[in-house]
Amino acid sequence: MSNKITLACAICSSRNYTTNKNVSTHSIRMEVRKYCKTCGKHTLHRETK
Hints:
Blueprint: E1 2-9, E2 15-22, E3 31-36, E4 41-47
């Protein structure tokens, strides 16, 4: 079963991306390096609640 999650920038905390995650195979919080338009550079984005 997959759930819709939101990714937030670790530096400025802006919520930029949404994606799906399979909860049964990935139980820990997702962390991805993506482009943040607020910061203007690639930063670490973490899964939010």
